Give the backbone structure.
Amino acid sequence: MDVPTDGGRGGGGCPTGFSRRRTRRCTRAGTLRRGGEGGGTTVAGTPPCGDINWEPLDAAAVGKNTKLLEFSDQGTGDYRIPSFRVVYDDGSTISPVTYESHEIVIGRVPTPDHTPTLRLDDDCDATSLIIRCRDTVTNLLVELIYTVLHKEDVMTRRSVVVNNTDDVVKVDLLSSTTLDLDTNEFYMTQLSGAWARERQIVSKRLTDGVSAVESRRGASSHQHNPFVLLSVGGPPSETSGEAIGLGLMYSGSWSCVAEVSSETGRLRVQMGINEQGFMWRLEPGDRFGSPEVVMCYSATGTGGVSRQMHRLVRKHVIPPRWRGKRSPIVLNTWEATYFDVSHSSTVDCAKAAGQAGIEMIVIDDGWFKNRVDAKSGLGDWTLDENKFPFGLERLSKDVNATGLHLGIWVEPEMVSLNSALYKAHPDWCLHVPSRGRTTGRNQLVLDFTRKEVRDNIFGQLSDLLSSGNIAYVKWDCNRNLTEVFSSAWSSHHQGEIGHRYIMGVYEVFERITTAFPDVLFESCSGGGGRFDLGMLYFSPQAWTSDNTDALSRLKIQWGTSLWAPACTMGAHVSTTPNHQTLRSATMKTRSLVAMCGTFGYELDPRPLSRAELAEMAAYVRLCRKLAHLVHSGDLYRLWDPFESTSAAWMYVLEGGLEAMVVAVNLSREVGRLLPHLRMQGLDPTTTYAVEELVPGNVTRNPETGAINTDGADVYQLGAKMTLSGVTLMEAGLPVRFLFDGDSVLFHLYPHTKQCAR
């Protein structure tokens, strides 16, 4: 389907970017004639506008391959990557569709059950457009669905194929969006990495040919995140230039393909379900819809896209029950006890944690039957009576008596070979009956395409949450899919299993969160292996990474912040040396980095001294004091850790009324000074009190170089000072770090307001 603005650019300042459709309308409005100096084309009744270099384009001569399209078929002249591909009963894949009709509706168009989509408090907050296109030979129908949010620079797109033919049709490619952009210089920023190194920022210039980022793992993955950012006209900039963000509301295998035409230089971007291993069978009358893509535009660079996405996630993605609520400050038992968790260790940890003001203890892996190591127990979600002889109800009462709430870890999608569930139902996992079964982390993946499996897991989780006062659940998924085959489905449907699997996960997630609406769920997948818009639709936060090292987290959380707000990022203070990197960091730096997420602890509080618990308690109080800024403020990224030896960022309340600024040094070069830290997002006319909330305690003797840690407070600039917003943004603050991993926190709030000059 042609974009109405397809065409060229003429001379003399005349807006000549008409498509042939626009030219035809002009012809009906007046007499199209040739004349004037240089033989220019003019329309009667309008002033002449000079010479035009482009003749009206002849589609038969030019062909589809050079056009800007909203949706593209395969095999009829567009040689770029198509938007969809179907296979008819006779084996043909040719299916051009043309515009038939459109419909504008208030609100959004309903999606199938359990499908993540943007939430609307009021239908009047959005308008949707449905464009219907038909293959006039086979009668196949395609619906292109656009939804525009009125208060955000955001729209969504998805596609639906309806089989109105008389035969079976197989869909083996369906993009959620096709975005064709006219010739320019384009850069694509993707979020790539690995376990414990998720969502590292990778930017590259798009040149002739195809660039792809994808997951084929049955999950959105640690390796590549289903969000990309296009920078238009030059390299990505945090503060300037046009930028377009695309985020897929999906947690399964996905792909984003960017293709620059070597003929025209135009860019095409496709995003949706990964076509590898995918084929959906449509009986006559059936329909299949793609996941939704969120598209965000900014004229103020990468930062503008991020702030739009953050507001979108907070207002229109996460469950309404948890909007605007600070996440409880939790202590997770994993690094405290590993598999040796028990009733007594949990209660003792809770007592110690309570002295630091921690609000909840979460018992992690190891609490259920036969779970002494990673080789057994998954699938049997009942309490180990040897470790917890008094049951879950008694445990929750004893924990509540310390003043803390109780949370629990589960991994519902997995099953151990050594488990009662697997022994009773060995066919309930994904597998090809005639072949071996590939384990990952000593476990198999349950077949969530089967109703009996979903019902069993829902029943076990429901019984678990009903057996004690549980306020929080961490839902984990520690491996990706292999042998994506289900013995419950015929051979005709095996190409659907990957998608049906993730839709089954969504169904159970929706059922359990609906049945227990006051239980806070955090999603997890071996850390950040499924941190995506699809999972945030069901749980308001996700574990960002299994790597809790503060300096590693700087880059992980920085990359994640490209689209996800801080309130969704699970972030904890862990022990030192860190259990993943063996690196040490101060409690101050570990706390400030974790505070820019949900904030909690991943350590054993029992051996800590009173002074150490008191230090933790001070950071807990500080977190509560500043949580409204982190969770509701606009994020401005200042120093980029991917391009600098330091990282700095700030959160600003709407209107610049209040802000907090965090800066952390990754590696200090001796003798080299840092540039001034210039703020953003402040009101230039306001005079701010600038208060350093967490002073350091290390000084160096300038004569000998000896280190002094006598406990005296050491400030960057003094305990408090006043500066205007314009000074803070234009001149900035001098910052000096003393050691690798040093950090600083500033709190800004109005002192007085001056008249604008």
